Amino acid sequence: MTPDEILARVLYRDQDVIVLDKPAGLAVHAGPGTTDHLELYLDPLRFGWSQNPRLAHRLDRDTSGCLILGRHDKALKRLGRMFETHRIEKVYWSVCVGLPPQPRGRIEAPLLKLSEPGRGWRVRVDPAGQRAVTDWVVLGQGGGLCWVEWRPRTGRTHQIRAHAAHLGCPLLGDAVHGLDPAPSVPLHLHSRAVTIPPLSPSRPPIEAHCVPPMALRAALELCGAPGAALP
C-alpha cells in the first residue's frame, strides 16, 4: 500500500489507539513464506510519534475490517489486559453456506490447533482443546446462504470459522473449514466493529465500524443486507 492508501484506511485515531480497516489478503505480520504484510506499511501512521504503532491483536490474512493498533507501550499493555479479560467487544459479519440450527444462539465448543500431514495446521472442535465461546445471530438469508453476525467471547485462532463449520454453516470461501478446499470466491468474513473501554477515566469508550469490502457485498445483498450497511 502507498502512504495515502493506508492513511485512507484509518477508522479512528487518538493519542493511544488507531483502528485500521485491514484489507483482506494481507497478513498482519511476517511469517513462513510471507514477504508482504501490514507491518511493512505502518510508518505513515506515526503521526509525529517516534515509533510505528503496533498490533494489539490479530486478524487472519483473509479477514477484512477493524484492526486495533496501540501507539505506545503503555497503550499496548492496557489493550493487552483488556483482550485478556475479554473487555473489548468485537463484531464480525460473515456469509455462510446453509443455516445454523437456530436463528440465534451461543456455541461453547473447545478448539484444538493441530498439524495434519499434507494440509498444514488447522483448528477443529475437540474436547482436548481450549475453551471457545461465540454468540451468533442470523441477520438475513437468501440463495442458500445466510448473513450472520458473530460476537466471539474468547479469542482463539480461527474461532468463528471453526464454530461456523461445527454449526453446519461453514463460511463462504473458507478453504480450511468449508465445503470446497479450492473455493472460487474469497473468504466472506469481515470484522465489522470494535468497542474499546476507556483507556483513562476521563475519556469515553472508543467505537469504530467498517463497511464490508466489495468482494463480500454481492453475497450480503443476496442475504438481505440493506444498502445503508454497504455504502
TrEMBL record:
SUPFAM superfamilies: Pseudouridine synthase. Belongs to the pseudouridine synthase RluA family. Keywords: Isomerase. Residues 16-166 form the Pseudouridine synthase RsuA/RluA-like domain. Gene3D superfamilies: Pseudouridine synthase. This is tRNA pseudouridine32 synthase / 23S rRNA pseudouridine746 synthase. One of its GO terms (molecular function) is pseudouridine synthase activity. InterPro entries: PsdUridine_synth_cat_dom_sf, PsdUridine_synth_RluA-like_CS, PsdUridine_synth_RsuA/RluA, RluA_PseudoU_synthase. The keyword Isomerase applies. GO terms for biological process: enzyme-directed rRNA pseudouridine synthesis. The lineage of its organism: Bacteria, Pseudomonadati, Pseudomonadota, Alphaproteobacteria, Rhodospirillales.
